[in-house]
């Protein structure tokens, strides 16, 4: 840049470090930091980018060294820096040391943890199948009025369902995680609980959309003796004026056709044509089509917990890196 008459700024320096870490080249990022850092007034953000890079590639010892170096240089660590270090330690299995840093940031630094601070503890508890510990962390977050993101809620719900603790799973969700809970309950054959969750959603301030209806329709249509109930939810969606996904129309059409229920299919098509929604009226043609749905199509709107491959927006949001 200097050769073209431009002098790189600290923001440029951060962008290059971020790009290297984002692409898994954390060693190269640290070498670049050592070679060029003296030309910039490095901040906690500079170190946070590198620490978070080591967190993603699960090198907690490297993350700890950088954090210690930051403190020794007189750079005051902030909440994102602590969050990145705690994430690195939890990913590396050193929960005890992560808890020590959580205590230190509050008592020694006077910092207030946010939801991202507790996220690594929850993910670690879920990874080790420790439902009690996960719920303890969740309760602690709620006590401090911190709201976990949808990935965190879904991880806890998935764990509880895997462990057969359906009643506990039922008590966990917020408005963002109903889809995952419904999907898992249907998957383990607890249709009664799925219906109970559905019936209680509106009283808790959640009004189902196309994705939530799709979970019920797709799940029930695949269960023996539940096709009529799937049709019932489809009718509810149409009557609410909520356009169904194309995949939902195709799957329900194929199930009805396979079971020789053409009359029931015609009833649904007629219902769609009489809808006040032009989109739903147009989608009635999909129900008449003879083209089979792709059974391998992903119909779930749920996302998995992020692993090592994080997109740029997720990185920046997770550690509040900014631009």
Q: Compute the CA-based radius of gyration.
A: 25 Å
Distance, first to last CA: 19 Å
Strand content: under 5%
Choose one word for the global shape: elongated
pLDDT averaged residue by residue: 84
* Class inferred from helices and paired strands: mainly alpha
Query: How many DSSP E strands?
Result: 0
Largest sheet: none
Number of helices: 18
Helix content: 55-70%
Provide the low-confidence segments as ranges.
293-316
Query: What is the H-and-E element order?
Result: HHHHHHHHHHHHHHHHHH
Assembly type of the chains comes to single chain
Q: What would your notes on this structure say?
A:
65% of the residues lie in helices and 0% in strands. It is mainly α and 323 residues long. The protein starts with 9 loop residues before the first helix and ends with a helix. It has a domain at 208-300. Mean pLDDT is 84; it is low at 293-316. The longest helix is centred in the N-terminal third of the chain and has 13 residues, at 10-22. It has helices at residues 10-22, 26-36, 44-56, 60-72, 79-91, 95-107, 115-127, 131-143, 150-162, 166-171, 178-187, 191-201, 210-221, 227-239, 246-258, 262-273, 278-288, 312-319.
Write the layout of secondary structure elements.
Elements: H1 10-22, H2 26-36, H3 44-56, H4 60-72, H5 79-91, H6 95-107, H7 115-127, H8 131-143, H9 150-162, H10 166-171, H11 178-187, H12 191-201, H13 210-221, H14 227-239, H15 246-258, H16 262-273, H17 278-288, H18 312-319
Helix pairs in contact: 1-2, 1-3, 3-4, 3-5, 4-5, 5-6, 5-7, 7-8, 7-9, 9-11, 11-12, 11-13, 13-14, 13-15, 15-17, 16-17
InterPro entries: Mito_RNA-Proc/Resp (IPR051240), PPR_rpt (IPR002885), TPR-like_helical_dom_sf (IPR011990)
Organism: Triticum turgidum subsp. durum (Durum wheat)
Protein name: Pentacotripeptide-repeat region of PRORP domain-containing protein
């Amino acid at each position: 840049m200097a050769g073209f008459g431009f002098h790189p700024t600290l923001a440029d320096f951060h962008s290059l470090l971020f790009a290297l870490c984002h692409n898994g080249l954390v060693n190269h990022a640290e070498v670049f930091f050592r070679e060029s850092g003296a030309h910039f007034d490095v901040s906690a953000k500079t170190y946070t980018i590198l620490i978070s890079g080591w967190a993603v590639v699960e090198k907690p010892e490297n993350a700890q060294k950088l954090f210690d170096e930051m403190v020794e240089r007189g750079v005051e660590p902030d909440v994102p820096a602590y969050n990145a270090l705690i994430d690195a330690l939890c990913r590396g299995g050193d929960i005890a040391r992560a808890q020590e840093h959580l205590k230190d940031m509050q008592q020694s630094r006077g910092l207030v943890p946010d939801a991202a601070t507790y996220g690594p503890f929850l993910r670690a508890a879920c990874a080790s199948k420790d439902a009690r510990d996960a719920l303890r962390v969740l309760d602690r977050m709620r006590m401090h009025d911190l709201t976990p993101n949808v990935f965190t809620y879904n991880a806890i719900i998935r764990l509880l369902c895997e462990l057969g603790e359906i009643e506990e799973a039922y008590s966990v969700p917020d408005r963002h995680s109903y889809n995952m809970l419904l999907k898992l309950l249907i998957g383990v054959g607890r249709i009664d609980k799925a219906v109970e969750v559905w019936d209680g959603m509106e009283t808790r301030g959640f009004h189902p959309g196309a994705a939530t209806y799709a979970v019920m329709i797709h799940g029930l249509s695949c269960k023996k003796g539940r096709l009529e109930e799937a049709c019932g939810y489809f009718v509810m969606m149409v009557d609410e004026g909520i356009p169904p996904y194309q995949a939902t129309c195709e799957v329900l059409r194929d199930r009805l056709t396979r079971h020789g229920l053409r009359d029931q299919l015609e009833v649904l098509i007629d219902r769609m044509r009489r809808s006040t929604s032009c989109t739903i009226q147009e989608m009635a043609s999909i129900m008449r089509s003879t083209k089979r749905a792709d059974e391998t199509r992903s119909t779930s709107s749920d996302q998995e917990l992020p692993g090592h491959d994080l997109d740029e927006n997720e990185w920046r949001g997770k550690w509040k890196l900014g631009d």
